[in-house]
């Protein structure tokens, strides 16, 4: 067995499904990127471009309501992709029958750690490492242990929220299908294949289940993706003083303008 074959043999089903999602989204966005490049800005936009513009406007408004135009080149592309990535993971089981990657706790935990990576990167850059460390002593030094626990508690709570909601939905649907299979056997006395508790084709579950799929996969999936993205924006912006950042940006701009004026004169 080669190293590559051994690696893939050790991966869980959710991990492999996550790889499928990443490959699928990479292909989709490459195709969409080329499609957008071919569009004529002066012509009437197509329906696809209208949807893209609406989505971009929604994400930009959500970002502006929290970040006030700061850190746009880094955080906006991430949250724009994050909500689509989570939605695709949530809907994977609905359209393909595969298990959702987010039902493996490693996936939401990894997303939460990336989100909090932005928080600490921004604080180190705009607040300073020393001032950031001093913040763990606020409001009094006795709070240091609790403030240190906060470093672990927030990513865990954020990831557990996404993981718990998606896993609960998957378990409820699995229990429902199992119950429908048993009810199908009782009502229609269908033969059961040896080794299977339920019939191979659970037509009763397929008839009754669509409303549950709409709620747990579609509606709940949209809500979880939106909330996780919103929490990413909120948590990553905590500790940043946007008014101070504006003043520093203006001072830097004035300094550059004065240098240009001096060089011209």
Model description:
With 265 residues, this protein is mostly helical. The chain has one domain. The protein contains 10 helices and no strands. The protein has helices at residues 3-9, 13-37, 47-67, 72-96, 106-127, 129-134, 144-188, 203-208, 210-237, 242-264. Helix 2 packs across helix 4 (72-96), helix 3 packs across helix 9 and helix 5 (106-127) packs parallel to helix 9. The protein starts with a helix and ends with a helix.
SSE layout and pairing:
Elements: H1 3-9, H2 13-37, H3 47-67, H4 72-96, H5 106-127, H6 129-134, H7 144-188, H8 203-208, H9 210-237, H10 242-264
Helix pairs in contact: 2-4, 3-4, 3-9, 4-9, 5-7, 5-9, 7-9
Mean model confidence by pLDDT: 80
Largest sheet features: none
In total, the number of strands is 0
Share of β-strand residues: under 5%
> What is the gyration radius calculated from CA atoms?
25 Å
Principal-axes geometry comes out as flat
Measured distance between first and last alpha carbons: 73 Å
Residue windows where pLDDT falls under 50 for at least 5 positions = none
Structural class: mainly alpha
Number of domains: 1
Give the helix tally. 10
- SSE string: HHHHHHHHHH
- Helical fraction: over 70%
């Amino acid at each position: 067995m080669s190293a590559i074959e051994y690696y893939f043999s050790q991966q869980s089903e959710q991990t492999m499904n996550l790889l499928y999602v990443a490959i699928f989204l990479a292909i989709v966005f490459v195709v969409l990127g080329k499609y957008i490049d071919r569009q004529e800005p002066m012509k009437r936009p197509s329906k696809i471009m209208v949807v893209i513009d609406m989505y971009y406007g929604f994400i930009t408004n959500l970002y502006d309501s929290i970040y006030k135009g700061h850190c746009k080149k880094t955080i906006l592309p991430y949250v724009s992709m994050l909500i689509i990535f989570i939605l695709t993971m949530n809907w994977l089981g609905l359209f393909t029958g595969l298990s959702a990657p987010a039902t493996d706790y490693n996936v939401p935990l990894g997303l939460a750690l990336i989100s909090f990576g932005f928080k600490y990167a921004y604080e180190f850059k705009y607040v300073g490492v020393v001032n950031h460390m001093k913040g763990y002593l606020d409001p009094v030094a006795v709070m240091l242990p609790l403030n240190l626990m906060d470093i672990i508690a927030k990513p865990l709570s954020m990831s557990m929220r996404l993981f718990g909601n998606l896993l609960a939905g998957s378990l409820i649907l699995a229990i429902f299908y199992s119950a429908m299979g048993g009810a199908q056997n009782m009502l229609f006395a269908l033969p059961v294949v040896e080794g299977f508790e339920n019939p191979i084709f659970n037509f009763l579950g397929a008839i009754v289940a669509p409303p549950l799929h709409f709620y747990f996969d579609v509606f709940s999936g949209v809500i979880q993706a939106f909330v996780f993205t919103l929490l990413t924006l909120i948590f990553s912006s905590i500790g940043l003083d946007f008014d101070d950042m504006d003043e520093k940006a203006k001072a830097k701009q004035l300094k550059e303008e004065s240098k240009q004026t001096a060089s011209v004169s």
